[in-house]
Amino acid sequence: MDGKFSVSRRRAVGAVRTTSRLVFSVVLTFIGLLLVTFLIGRVIPVDPVLTAVGDRATADVYERTRIELGLHLPLYEQFWQYLVKILGGDLGYSVLTANPVTEDIRRVFPATLELATVSAFIGIFLGVPMGVLAAVHRGRWPDHLIRVVSLLGYSVPVFWLGLMGLLLFYAKLDWVAGPGRLDIFLEDLVDPVTGVILVDSALAGNWEVFTSAVRHLALPASILGYFSLAYISRMTRGFMLEQLSKEYVTTARAKGLSEFRVVWRHALGNAMVPLLTVIALTYASLLEGSVLTETVFAWPGLGLYITNSLLTADMNAVLGGTLVVGAVFIGVNLLSDVLYTVFDPRSR
Amino acid sequence: MIPVVWFFRVLVLTGRINFSPGLIIVVGITIGLFGIQCHAKIPQDVLIMATQIDDMITLDPAEIFEFSAAEYAANVYDRLVTFEPDDFSTVAGGVAESWVISRNGREFRFRIRPGLKFHSGNPVTAQDAAYSLQRVVRLNLSPAFILTQFGLNGANVHERVRAESEDILIIETDKSYAPTFVLNCLSAGVGSVVDQSVVQSYEVDGDMGHRWLRTNSAGSGPFMLSRWKANESIVLKRHTEYWREVPAMSRVILRHIGEPATQRLLLQKADVDIARDLGPDQIAGLASVPNVVVRPVPKSGIYYLGLNQRSDILRRPRVVEALKHLVDYQGLRDSLLANRASIHQSIVPKGFVGAIQDQPYVLDVEKARTLLAQAGYGNGFRLNIDTRNTSPAMEIAQSLQATFALAGIEINIVPGDGKQVLTKYRARNHEIFLGRWGTDYQDPHSNASAFAYNPDNSESSVTKSLAWRNGWPHPELSEMVGRAVREKDGARRAALYREMQRIHMRVSPFVIMFQDIEIVALRKNVHGFISGPTFDTVFYRNVTKD
After folding, report:
1. Are B78 and B221 in contact (CB under 8 A)?
2. ipTM higher than threshold 0.90
3. Is A226 helix (H, G, I), strand (E, B) or coil?
4. pLDDT tens track for B375-420
5. C-alpha distances in angstroms, A184 versus A219, B62, B234, B261, B523?
6. pTM attached to this predicted model
7. Nearest by CB to A51, which of B48, B144, B419?
8. Which among A56, A95, A163 has the least Cβ separation from residue B440?
């Protein structure tokens, strides 16, 4: 009993140690992230008071606002005050939108989440098979074709692709709806529950709004999906080539397994382990928000929010947005670690 | 997406991988998932505008000082006095139906129009008007100077701005000013009348409801705020008890579309009724589009160069004069700024009292070379131009770079974000600043005080006008600015501004080049959209759709 008890105790202690190490590193990462962003915000040659009071404000209004924003304090004190506020759950007010930053993020993040998730699905479900096919047919025309498609995805600016997509699929062919998340006169017909319109409209059973949301999402998601597809397919091809050259693949073939089983189950199954990290990072970067896509498609997401805030030195908003991006990266990485253990028994 | 995976499986299993058509089909399926034929029509009584509203940071008329928010306020709030769409040069009654000015010129007695109602249903009274003006002065936010320049401050405003009765409002100024000047200032956004009882009910810590009003409305104008999503959209709904004719549009939606090319596509597809920020490329592209009309609207914004007098080179009058001869005014107007600007070389915009049309400067490289040689710069020099990285500022800067080079002046363009460029400009760290200046209110004093008034050129000056930013004190002009604003006789006042501008044009380190023209592109079925000379004289109340 004692032996069993001490083993389970050791395990418990180990788990606590691992967890506290994880928590410590997460907290440290956040503080580092905030500090760097904070300093960048103070180094850029933009006067934050101008954002708040405009160009025409009188000297006394300017000075009063500078003090209200705490800009008269030394940098370390400004940062400390900000950290204390964050610990109290207060991200402050955005100068640019006049709203609490938490409220702004609650509004813009679901827009990015919706776009990123659909884009990631497109990227994964097309990119992985394309990478597998390219590897299986290495050096032959499917491989070349997929390379060209991938390179195009890499090298054509998303901004241009977006505009051309709008011109062709929206303006000429009328296959998809135009910019924005919804036909604007349909807004407010569905109560926001999650902020993700597809989910909210489905929950409310309002299929007119749902259809409009799908049609608005189609093009930006396809374009962002294409961008991530390019990366995922190239990486998949590389991982698959490595797996296909291994002895277990030859053995499997020699045993008479079907080519489908060899490629899609055994080789891809093993390639999935490193691929998970690629997919996780791709998804995380999509969740940061794509400024250019969001600009072209008037998609009010996180990327655009942070960029606009940074350009106008709206530091509460920038820091709040950075926190979210940091949380997303850490969260997605943790998730990929968990999935790692599922796909790779050795890591358990 | 499961069918997609199965599709690949089948292809591989059967060994018949025909990738090219496969890819096409997969893409087809993807697009097919999203359906086809996506056009939903805008309802007849809804007006949708594609515009850039990312400068909108507050909806409180005591704080509003940005273009799009000023336009919002003009449609949601009634002002004490205003301009009628058929005459933007004469102040007309708004909330005040009439007014009387005392003999000494210091007391303005306004009679409030009877029967006006706020969106809440409350009647509009003189007390509401007094409270609104007191609020602007006491909050003392960015546009407060428009009122405080009459000697009003937090301590005396209750005394000097007061309701004598339900329908009489009295405003006392510290000195005797030109009546037109006072009235023009009251026609600005700070003259908006807010619903006192509603605003006060949201007061927190003596903020006079400021925090609440930043994202809400309490006016009596033709429209009321329905929803504002910063950087996304603003939705207004009509005020059914509006004192003029009730608007035909039940909703007006301003949708933020940052990219002009996207605005054009939306207009072309009839997904918006009006596009407000099209560039020359988009305008040219719309020429062949049926059912769209493009309407140029003269605005009061001015494009100018500020030559910092703290620079040893730019301090020399002959250099300044030479630069005024190195701008290709006509070439720019006819090409890069076609339909977007007219040549204007004086500080008071066309359409304002005392505006002049003199255009003494043309591109004259030989004359500029001679002047530079006389100034000791026959071999030219190098300078930086700071400007915003947006159109048309960048295009103007590039043209200047080319024409300045003809006289041996090497220009380095330093583009930056608006706030970044302004930060440098306000710190007087620029050499040449290429900018656009919009008037604060519809009176010549607005620009005269910006471009010519600089009584204290020291770092601690409280009047950091454009003249100050460019390190240019001119006592004679500063005195004239003060004199013109107090001149009661309209004709003499206009003459003073004309004289002031001619001196300014000759000696100032400002190269005034163009006056703004806004291009409004509308669907042909939209009528009655009014866009006046300033950014806050845009009215939606008369819009109808066929």
Report:
1. yes
2. no
3. helix
4. 999 999 999 999 988 778 888 999 999 999 999 999 999 988 777 7
5. 17, 29, 10, 19, 17
6. 0.79
7. B419
8. A56
